[in-house]
Amino acid sequence: ENAARERSRVRNLRQAFQSLQAALASVPPDTKLSKLDVLVLGTNYIAHL
C-alpha cells in the first residue's frame, strides 16, 4: 500500500513538472530540462507576468 501510494505521488509530481514545462513558451517542447530548471524558469515566467 505504501509503495503504491509513493508510485502515485511520484507519477503526479512528474505530470505536474511536465505540465509546467509545457506552459513555458520560451522552451521548445522537446527540450529536456531538470526539475530545478523547470522551477526556475516557471518562477521567472510568473514574475514577469
Automatic annotation (TrEMBL):
Protein name, as recorded: Transcription factor basic-helix-loop-helix protein
Entry-linked PROSITE patterns: BHLH (PS50888)
Domain of life: Eukaryota
GO biological process: developmental process
Taxonomy of the source species: Eukaryota, Metazoa, Chordata, Craniata, Vertebrata
Domain BHLH stretches: 1-49
Gene Ontology molecular function, alphabetical: DNA-binding transcription factor activity, RNA polymerase II-specific; protein dimerization activity; RNA polymerase II transcription regulatory region sequence-specific DNA binding
